Amino acid sequence: MRYLGHNKKPIVDRVKPRSDSEKIDGMTVLPVKREIAHEVISISYGFLTPLEGFMNHDEVAGVTSDMELPDGTLWSIPIVFDMSAEEIEQRNLSEGDSVLMSYQGAPMATFDIDEIYRYDNAEMAEKTYGTKDPKHPGVRRTLAYADRFVSGKVTLINEPIFNEPFARYWRTPRQHLDAFAQKHWTSVVAHQTRNVPHTGHEALMKQAWFAANEDKPVDEIQTGILVNAIIGEKRIGDYIDESILLSQDMLREAGYFRDNIHMVTFTLWDMRYAGPREALLHAILRTNLGCTHHMFGRDHAGVGNFYKPYDAQSLLKQYREKLLIKPVFLKENWYCPECGEVTNAALCNHDRASQNFSGTLLRSILDDGVQPTRKVMRPEVFRSVMESSEKYGMGSSFVTEKYLKGRQPIFTLQKMEVLKA
Amino acid sequence: MRYLGHNKKPIVDRVKPRSDSEKIDGMTVLPVKREIAHEVISISYGFLTPLEGFMNHDEVAGVTSDMELPDGTLWSIPIVFDMSAEEIEQRNLSEGDSVLMSYQGAPMATFDIDEIYRYDNAEMAEKTYGTKDPKHPGVRRTLAYADRFVSGKVTLINEPIFNEPFARYWRTPRQHLDAFAQKHWTSVVAHQTRNVPHTGHEALMKQAWFAANEDKPVDEIQTGILVNAIIGEKRIGDYIDESILLSQDMLREAGYFRDNIHMVTFTLWDMRYAGPREALLHAILRTNLGCTHHMFGRDHAGVGNFYKPYDAQSLLKQYREKLLIKPVFLKENWYCPECGEVTNAALCNHDRASQNFSGTLLRSILDDGVQPTRKVMRPEVFRSVMESSEKYGMGSSFVTEKYLKGRQPIFTLQKMEVLKA
């Protein structure tokens, strides 16, 4: 029964480390960009179970139109490998070929090309994001796809070696399950994040923890919170990756969560900001990590005003029966001066007095290196953010051009002789 | 489907207001003490569904030995009417008689005597309370029972008229269900109390609220908290009844709970301090009020060191399948200076810094009329307690001999001509 993921499919395991001498000698080498490399890794380890590779035409059509794969499995976002017709011709790629994907100058994975096809990017964008407005970053990403797509299974032959601080937070789906078993967690509630935690996030996690407990006497409660950060494409002004992981972990280190109920890990995934559809993908992803519950607050995975605050909750409700993970729906927390504490909008009646957490305000405070009030951010979290800023952010807690160019890589791939030829 | 209570039995309704001329003229009048009067009222309105009267010998035997009524219904505490052999003889009572119970000099209920029997009080006490130590107030009560018991159905013929502030919090089980329907509550989590609320109680209720929400989008969540106070036998040093009701209600009035998620009512019941068995009774009672969930924290309904902190949770778990109400099990809250807030023992890792709520300390502070820090008690709650102290407690927030003698009655019964004869 273990290692079963989304739709009760076995957790995909397409990781087959190979030595240079095996087979790959002489294969066509296909260098891939970061977006593709990250997804190859996530697919191979099973984060995106049951996907085994990049989608073909029918899969994309089913996913965008009906939110399902051809076998009926619920899926909300196309996972595609785009390539220009020019490059396909230049590299002489054909359906049926097996090629060697390389990244960072090292061999990474084999790729069995199944189909080379066209797809209407504008239609893909509109169906996935519910808008064709190019101000939506997911739409922009989709419209920028090259004019062809290549589908097929991937097999990771060279495992990424994560650099610190990522190494200590890296766990494959199977390693998540093993860690949960070791901690005797029978319920695990996932928290999606790409943020440094303010006290509103902390309260959300705590509220979800109560919601995720089954009706067991407290001595038998074994519920964990998995803080699973999304690490991937960065936009200017985002929190830097290192800061997100270290500051989330600090909440446990500093005792705001007990050691036995809290764990921080990450998934390599580029946010699409697809709101409701992305929330579904997050539910699927955390199912594959062995979580039993997933918290969804206000504006989950949205951007701008493209989605209403609780659209994600409505869509998840609609597909509830097709998910093995139980959604925990919550309203936002706010700091209420009358309550003198962080409280949830569903509970507190001091609407006029209460102060919503302003991400923008918090960012501007942190950008100046000023410590926010402890009502809003734990002092240990603030110190962690400042340390990361110095150590990893070139003096900034937020992504800058300088960071994008000069940051340490998240992982490295071992060089292999084969590419030197 | 509505008005179904414990074990899916219809909510008992044995209330039949009668005019003087009907039948009761000429019936033997049996004056009853407060304990019996309260239970007659609770039985007749259905708070104790499926009970329709006082238990007979076999019912007491089944309840004390196997925690079930003869038809297999789960029941944990004997509900008996004790009477001395002397009084039975003096009033010439026999099995098969129908008599008129009177209270406060007014007719109250008819009582169809079914069985007059003896029972070993010591055995009843030990099986019910798990101890024969007379320091246990439930044991003491049982050992003090008269030497005979009288069983039979009761019918309330004269409805109590509750005095303020009780009137505004009085609801029959059917009125609870109607009120929930009017508020569109689909989940209701019960909070058992005989306390003025400190911030730890408030946190417990809020935590349980999250636990009681089903996986509905927040716009559709209709979960209420029913604060159902136990009003009955008072011991010196208990909070006065008026203060409990008014200060619990103040949490909503002052906005710590939204109007649409919080309601205060009470049940006439004498605490037995039976710990686990009393917790089961509370679960049954709140099932009869239409609640779907019931919170159980540490030391539920216990006294002294007779029960372990989570014994009640263990027993409820064991009988989970026989209950229509879902228990929500919680650890205690404490004030943690490092977190700077009230937090739950299950979450916070600052064990050494954290400060348990001391009921004794809080009582001694209130006894001096000193306002506790707002971390421990909301200022509006404190002011309410002080007001009740003046208005109802003769200057004390706690039960004194003076209060017991001079308090306004909780309810009055209309006088009827029949008793004047």
Task: Explain how this protein is built.
The structure is a homodimer of 421-residue chains. The first copy, chain A, has 421 residues and is of the alpha/beta class. The first copy, chain A, folds into 2 domains: 6-159, Sulfate adenylyltransferase; 167-406, HUPs (Rossmann fold), CATH 3.40.50. The first copy, chain A, has helices at 34-45, 57-66, 85-90, 121-129, 137-143, 173-182, 199-212, 241-253, 276-288, 311-318, 359-367, 379-391, 401-406; strands at 29-31, 53-54, 82-83, 98-103, 106-117, 148-156, 161-162, 187-193, 223-231, 262-268, 293-296, 326-329, 333-336, 341-344, 355-356, 411-412. In chain A, strands 1, 2, 3, 4, 5 and 6 form a 6-stranded mixed beta sheet that branches. A 5-stranded parallel beta sheet of chain A has the order 10-9-8-11-12, with helices on both faces. In chain A, strand 11, helix 10 (311-318) and strand 12 form a beta-alpha-beta unit. Chain A is globular, with a radius of gyration of 22 Å. The N and C termini of chain A lie far apart (45 Å). The model of chain A has no long low-confidence stretch (mean pLDDT 94).
Keywords, please?
2 domains, homodimer, Sulfate adenylyltransferase, 13 helices, 5-stranded parallel β-sheet, 6-stranded mixed β-sheet, 421 residues, alpha/beta, Rossmann fold
